[in-house]
Write a structure and sequence with these properties.
372 residues, alpha/beta, VC0802-like, 7-stranded mixed β-sheet, binds S-adenosylmethionine
Amino acid sequence: MTKQHKFFAVVSPGLEHIASRELESLSAHNINIEYGGISFTGTIPLLYRVNLRVRTITRVLMRLRTFRSMTLEGLKYDLEKIAWHVFFNENTKLEVEVHTHHSRLHHNDEIAAFSKKVILDCLPKIGSQAPLHTQTLHIRIDNNRGILSLDTSGERLDRRGYRLASGKAPLRETLAAAMVQWSDWKPEQSLLVPMCGSGTIAIEAALVGLNKAPNLRHNFSFLHFASFKKKAFNIAYDKCLAMEKNIPLHILATDNHDSALAACTKNIKRAGVEHHINVRKQDIHQLKKPITKHGGVLLLNPPYGLRIGDEKKVLSLWVDIGKILRQYFIGDHTWKTVIICPDAKHEKALHVPVKKRLKLKHGGLQTMLLEV
Ligand SMILES: C[S@@+](CC[C@H](N)C(=O)[O-])C[C@H]1O[C@@H](n2cnc3c(N)ncnc32)[C@H](O)[C@@H]1O
């Protein structure tokens, strides 16, 4: 159980530093930011803990083996070295995902089919019964250097399961959690989320404030590894429950659209944080700074004017938001504002001094977090 394994956390570009701090706080070792994610080492109980508790990581891969081969025969040698019975059983549906770059081996479909056959030859019982769960092997070959990794998370970890109802342009849960962490909001402070949409930011903040692990209900693929350690998992799971705090939070989520508020209310309930978030109908133009003891944080994800035609209207809303920020929030050191801003045009419309920025990608598009 104390054997150290190599892992790789996949994150959306831009979230690497926030995610690596999460891994540090969970006592991962040898944390190293690499292209597309973070490598780290640790035990199997650490793997369970990380999957249950990380907020900003998309998935966790277990690195099985590195190789240097330019032929399928060479790849076969490396595939045969892995003890597949540790992971797969008769109910496993095996999938192989291949990415190649600048390499002699570059026919991805051929590599995937070949690898699957080699693994099945090693362990013929794989999938011999009705397939009940999928396991995904990732083969990445870059400049003829390969790496074989097994996915441990299953469905992406940002799919927390609470957001069945969604408004317009919902934010990925991992990005919403990153926004909360980047803002350094403290649970005793007020948190305002005007333009809350389906409630993602407010829900992620409540989960942070209550120290609730975000992925307790996730169907991780490691649960179906042949070597799954139920006792170790139960210990990690129970520890998550024991760490939860039942403290009062001061989170207010508002929006001016009834359908967004309806989705938000349902999602908050599904996430089990309905006693910790107030939801109210309010137009951003009515936003005022509440009087608070410990100051507060304002988190904003306004609509973007990406479609031509909408742009003028949306940019004038950003101009108004800038005015509201200058009137009530900017210059008050007890309040901090973080806003998701897609580009320089929207930033210009806002017309407020930027203290800090973080470049990110969301749904393949470049965007930024601005602290103003
Ligand atoms: C980009 S969406 C927010 C998405 C949200 N973060 C989520 O995860 O669902 C922008 C939200 O701003 C709201 N909105 C647009 N104009 C508004 C206004 N004048 N006052 C208040 N809310 C407004 C829309 O109804 C929409 O829900």
